[in-house]
Task: structure prediction
Amino acid sequence: MAADLATMLGIYVYALYALAAYSFTYRDNSFFKFAEHTYVATSIAYNASVAYGTIRFTAVEPILTGKNFTFLIPLLVGALFIFFFSKKYFWLYRFPIAVIAGTGFGLAMSGTISAQFMAQILATIPPQLKLYVVHPTLGFQGMDTLNNWLIIIMTIGTLAYFFFSIPPETALGKAARTLGIVGRWTMMIAFGSAFGNTVMTRMNLFIGVYKNLLRDYTSFIGFTVLILVVATLEGQRAKKAEQKA
Amino acid sequence: MSYRRKEIPIVLTTILAILVICSVFFKVPEVQQAASQLQTWTANVVVNFAVIVGFIMVIKMHKSRIDRRKPGDKSWMFSAWLIGLLIVYVLLGVYGVESSRSATPTRDPTFRWIYDNVIVSLDSSMYSMLAFFIASAAFRAFKARTKEAAVLLLSGAALMLYNAPAGSVIFGPLAPQFNLLGEWILNVPNMAGFRGIVIGAAVGAISLGIRVMTGRERGYLGGGE
Amino acid sequence: MSLWKRLEAVDVRMIYLVLWILVGIPLLSPLYLPLSISPDTVKYHDAVEALPAGAVVAFGMDVSPAGYGGELGPQARATATHVLRKPVKVIFLSFWETGAPLIESVWKDPFVAALIKTKEYGKDYVNLGWIPGTETGMASFATDIWKTAEKGDYKGTKLADLPIMTNVKTVDDFYMLICIETGTPGGPEYLRQWQARNPKLKMIVGSLGVSVPANMAYVASGQYMSILRGGRGATEYQRLLNIVTPADVQGADAMTMSHVVVLAFLAIGNIAYFATKKPKTSGGKA
Result:
């Protein structure tokens, strides 16, 4: 019984917040501001709660049970974050930032070189990318060969588009400019495909919410009417106030 | 001495970055152990303290809005609601962590209920609002004013038809050929363009890392002395 | 004022209303439109199907609630159904704090729940919950899982009390990584910190549609074995596994309708633009 009530209440609360958020597309109104502030509060509180849980059971628990006192070091470093709010000792806040930045940059740089730099370049040149594709039984594959050549030219073209340090009047500069034109057209097609995929994602996000709103028609229609009426009245009041001023 | 205020953190950043890089490229057990310990401490403890700074900043910001309220202006009530809800939900989360004896506050049913019906609802609807703006932009803003824009639009339209589960149906008997065109756009020009961008971004990330390690990039340390 | 000029000046809220109505039609009454299966989805399916018995699979639920509700939820539920059908060990985890509770949401799916009943928690599958630290956390996890997950699983049970974790100490002990990703940290971060350390680690990715164009570079280079392309990929995968529900059909039809609506707006907007565009004068400016 309690579980059914919690589920029903959950459906109503879900509908209220979703429609309050969407009401921004009609006009800015109090319901939207309420939803916006709720979103900020619950998101930050959620993140703070999981952060508390992690610190509590990763670092504090081993110290309290006497298993591992070395966690005092990261706890003290992390505690220096509080000096962000001090004008006199603000510089102490830079130490935990330096720890996070140093570790993060080191990891990102070392991983990027192999995973995103070398791997992608190797995938654009032979032997990984064949310049002449022959199937063992079907023979020469014209379309695959053409595609591979297009990939090489288009990738180099995209990179050449961002070469700004070669003087354009030199032979190399002119070649880079020509390849850059190929790169520009390649990127137009790539960004077009990115746009097409973005439409799919955003529409699917909307469809996901819409499906949940249709779980209960009473809450959907009821809250829609309520929010539209309140938003319209607020709009009319604001217009009157503007006209008076 | 004022040089310690920025220079020492920069040196610390560089030393730690070099330690981590060496642990990846050189198989020295002591270096790898030190780097592993550094990563565990940073990930599990230090990073989580940054969240608490954000928490306090938001409370301070909204408290100052309440303090600066003018007569007749009711917007301070939203800030009061935010601060109240923030504190209540955090206390609920702390209770969830302590009562379940786990690092997971969602083990508490009330905390989980609020996550499922408030956070999920708001997160989904805030991000999905872009669907409406995309639809209105498609009508008002996405015009083929130049040849490049036309190519972008045609490529986008082809991908939209390809992505729609039944999009190729409009081509009737040519549907398989249209699907091949969609595959070709994704696997050849799109892939080549984004490969160039990924390589360029990798070069940018490496050069930014070098700039940070040599102290030329100091923005991450915050302003002031 | 001509029709085209009036169309260009239409209130933007009418456009939103048209979207609400037309996308709502298939959600109320499914149209059962046809669907073809793309090669990438077939490869994704085959990669999971080829998992050998006893393999250790990391299932990364690196999702936001918004991503889960849209495209990644169906992908995650379908992938979990398929993986749990295989005699493998599955370690669920998340590097997104908002993604960790959604692992339990995946388990509540009817198809997944039926399979979970046949498995033993701690022996066949486990949920390590949120691993903090984003990319740094990934690197820490890759080099020493037990130290990074010191807090235990999502219930607080220590790893020593979970038999599945006995021989899983570093990323070298994983056969495959399934990454359902919303953004950062996600696939590229796993490539940098996991696959760079263990080049034999197989990786398949369930991706948001918006990330698909960039992810194709990793698919083409072989770093990802394959990819599920957003909502379309999820729909195709459900068909391959034969786990399509009426709600999924409604979602797929609504996806088609929404794309048709946007295409129609694009077409009308551009026709109106060209119809109302002033011809260039001999002075050169329009």
